[in-house]
């Protein structure tokens, strides 16, 4: 089945160029005609990945990312002609999975798309099939990308879920930042190190809702470790 990519880009020349290039790689590509309404065509197309420009008519890409995140965990790659570090931080905090600055080479974007699709849809196929992990009195559902504690259920993004799974499966051992980056993004050349920090911060914020905000520990100069809290032993 062809994977579907939804491109939110108001520059017709850039949209047409991307559409033509991606269709050569057997992707189905669509985009909105009316930038006042992104959600209707997004929902109808039901894509596996979104490419989102930041500077758009009416509402910016951050707004539409929030709208999409309210209903979907589909991977989102941001595009922007701006190079301020805070744009990258905002993109990741809003739920973006990657960020690429204009002008860009289409082969670089393609590599990011392929890596994002692999980590979003392929990693949850372990060699020995498992449905869940038990950790600190919670259940990590490997099929639905959620963590449950009692009657409360927290939904995680693909990146947050993957990071948590790696750390928990390490059994109280430190996982280096480099190892996490390699496992998340496959090729370090296409990764901004800040992306990992932002994803871990978001993960901790969500875990705090279950009283586990301190269960992901930073080991300075080494990496991260998922620990067993005393109250849950």
Automatic annotation (TrEMBL):
Keywords annotated in UniProt: Cytoplasm, DNA-binding, Phosphoprotein, Transcription, Transcription regulation, Two-component regulatory system
Subcellular location: Cytoplasm
DNA-binding residue intervals: 130-228
Keyword Transcription appears in the UniProt entry: yes
Response regulatory domain boundaries: 4-117
In-chain residues carrying the UniProt-annotated modification 4-aspartylphosphate: 53
Keyword Cytoplasm (UniProt): yes
Pfam families reported in the protein's UniProt record: Response_reg (PF00072), Trans_reg_C (PF00486)
Residue ranges annotated for the OmpR/PhoB-type domain, each copy included: 130-228
Chain segments annotated as coiled-coil in the UniProt record: none
Database matches in InterPro entries: CheY-like_superfamily, OmpR/PhoB-type_DNA-bd, Sig_transdc_resp-reg_C-effctor, Sig_transdc_resp-reg_receiver, WalR-like, WH-like_DNA-bd_sf
Name assigned to this protein: Response regulator transcription factor
């Amino acid at each position: 089945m062809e994977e579907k990519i939804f491109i939110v880009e108001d520059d017709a020349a850039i949209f047409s160029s991307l559409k033509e290039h991606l269709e050569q790689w057997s992707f189905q590509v669509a985009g909105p005609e009316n930038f006042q309404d992104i959600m209707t065509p997004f929902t109808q197309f039901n894509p596996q990945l979104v490419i989102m420009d930041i500077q758009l008519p009416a509402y910016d890409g951050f707004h539409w990312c929030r709208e999409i995140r309210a209903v979907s965990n589909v991977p989102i790659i941001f595009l922007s002609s701006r190079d301020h570090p805070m744009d990258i931080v905002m993109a990741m905090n809003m739920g973006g999975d990657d960020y690429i600055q204009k002008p860009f080479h289409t082969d670089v974007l393609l590599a990011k798309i392929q890596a994002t699709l692999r980590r979003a849809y392929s990693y949850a196929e372990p060699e020995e099939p498992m449905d869940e992990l038990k950790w600190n009195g919670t259940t990590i559902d490997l099929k639905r990308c959620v963590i449950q504690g009692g009657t409360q259920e927290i939904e995680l993004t693909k990146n947050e879920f993957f990071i948590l799974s790696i750390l928990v499966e390490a059994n109280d051992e430190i996982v280096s930042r480099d190892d996490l980056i390699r496992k998340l993004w496959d090729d370090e050349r296409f990764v901004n190190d800040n992306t990992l920090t932002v994803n871990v911060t978001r993960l901790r914020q969500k875990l705090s809702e279950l009283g586990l905000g301190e269960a992901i520990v930073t080991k300075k100069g080494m990496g991260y470790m998922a620990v067993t809290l005393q109250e849950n032993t």
